[in-house]
Structures are given as C-alpha cells and as structure tokens.
Amino acid sequence: MSCKIDYQARPDLLAGRVILVTGAGDGIGRAAALSYARHGATVILLGRTTAKLEATYDAIEAAGGPQPAIFPLNFEGATLKDYHDMAETLDKEFGRLDGILHNASLLGRLTPFEQYDPALWEQVMQVNINGPIWMTQALLPLLKAADDASVVFTSSSVGRKGRAFWGAYAVSKAATENFSELLADELENVSNIRVNTLNPGATRTQMRKTAYPAEDPQKLRTPDEIMPTYLWLMGLDSQGHSGERFDAQPPKS
Ligand SMILES: NC(=O)c1ccc[n+]([C@@H]2O[C@H](COP(=O)([O-])OP(=O)(O)OC[C@H]3O[C@@H](n4cnc5c(N)ncnc54)[C@H](OP(=O)(O)O)[C@@H]3O)[C@@H](O)[C@H]2O)c1
C-alpha cells in the first residue's frame, strides 16, 4: 500500500480528460470534482441530490474550470437500463471516458450484526458495491475508447480488515477491494484501463462525523488536503499501476 500525499500535480495534469465522479455533491467527492476541474478535466458530476450537484457545478464555473455536466442518479433505485442510458448519453456527448472516481457511499448504521436490519444491509450493498459494479460494466466500452483510462474505487480501512459494528459498510468495502483487483486482472494487457482502490483515511466530512460523533473534526485532514493521491491516480503519472491499493494519507505514527 502506498500514499502520494506529497505529489505535486501539474496545473494541466488532466487537461482534455473526461472524468466521472460519483457522490460529487458533498465531502470528498465534491473536493475531487473541483480539484479535477482545476487541473483541466471536464467533470461529470453524479449524485442523488441535484441541488448539491448544482452547487459543485457553480463552484467549478466560478473557478474558471471547463464546463462540467450534471448527472443525477440514485444508486438505490437505479436499474441496468439507467446505466446503459447513461452510457449512451455520455457516448453521444463525449465519445469516451478517461476516468471514473467511484466515491459515493452510504455508511448505514454502526450496530452489532445481531441487530443489523436486513433491509438496511441490502441498501448499503446496493449503493456501495452493486450499483457501482453494474454502472462500470455499462461504461466499459467508453473506457476502452480512451487512450488511457483510470478507474478508482474508494475503499476504507474497515474494508481491508473487518471491524466490529461496521456491518454492511465494511463488507461492501471488502468487496470493492476484491472487485477492483478482479477487474484490474481481467483488463491487464488487453486494454488501456487501470483499476485501483484508494482509502481516503479519516477525513473531515459528514460521513466521518456520523461515524465518530465525539471526535474533534478540527483534528482531521480536510477533503482538499488529501487530493494529491486522487490527482495522481487520475493522471498519466500513475500509468502502469493497476490492481493496487492506495492510501490518501500516511499511516498514523
Ligand atoms: N470521510 C472519511 O473519513 C472516510 C474514510 C474512509 C472512507 N471514506 C469513503 O470516502 C467516500 C466519500 O465519503 P465522504 O466522507 O465524503 O462522505 P459524504 O460526505 O457522506 O459523501 C458521500 C456522497 O455519496 C453520495 N451518495 C450517498 N448515497 C448515494 C446514492 N444512493 N446515490 C448516489 N450518491 C449517493 C452522497 O450524496 P448526498 O450528498 O446527496 O447525500 C454524497 O455526495 C465514501 O466512499 C466513503 O466510504 C470516507
């Protein structure tokens, strides 16, 4: 596992690249969308709350970034047809896709497994792993149409080692790690698509606050501060890396 916290991205690192960011309306996804646009990418903003996506859109425009696109989609109710319609729309608009940051996730509830609500379990698995998997399948032809495409799945420390009370969230992140490795292995040598996972580490967002209500958020890095690895993975400097696990923050000493 490695971390690129000291990576310094060139201002034009992502110029001309078309990158889809899920959960782009809040937290880390919003910061990544803004950061990718600041480095020249045309960003497709996907999420479930249109007003939040519009706020990200406005912030990109105000900063003078390339005009983004908004794609409202809720992984909870989305169907295979939605993903294929999406691929058709993106094909017409851009003809290819240079990157996907799978970032949207639901925490669910921190509770002993004995009391875990099966309906909530299904919901978390749908949003965190099943939806993103089928969306990726539908978008593969567009990724293949790019000269170099990077797919990044967001993981978590509880996806690498299971931890009490983290329920479906932990299991969905473990599945994310495995799926990413499986896809990277299948695509190696037969495409220009690389697939990796990235664990942001403890970051000052609403999800973190919900998981750790007693923690002082000021002691955590902000989403903006963890962007170097997000940028490195999306640009050409990470070519040749696939099927690997990355951390956005150095391990605590
Ligand atoms: N923050 C941390 O300390 C931390 C640590 C390890 C891993 N992570 C991972 O980092 C990623 C970002 O987390 P975050 O902390 O930035 O969380 P966040 O602030 O809660 O943002 C999550 C994003 O996912 C979107 N989302 C949730 N359910 C969705 C659905 N059904 N369909 C489409 N979009 C949906 C949310 O949309 P709305 O805004 O509309 O709700 C929001 O934009 C997640 O994958 C998380 O598991 C975070």
Automatic annotation (TrEMBL):
A GO term for molecular function: oxidoreductase activity
Ketoreductase domain: residues covered: 17-196
Annotated protein name in UniProt: NAD(P)-dependent dehydrogenase, short-chain alcohol dehydrogenase family
UniProt keyword annotation of Coiled coil present: no
Keywords in alphabetical order: Oxidoreductase
Pfam family, one: adh_short
PANTHER family (UniProt xref): ALCOHOL DEHYDROGENASE
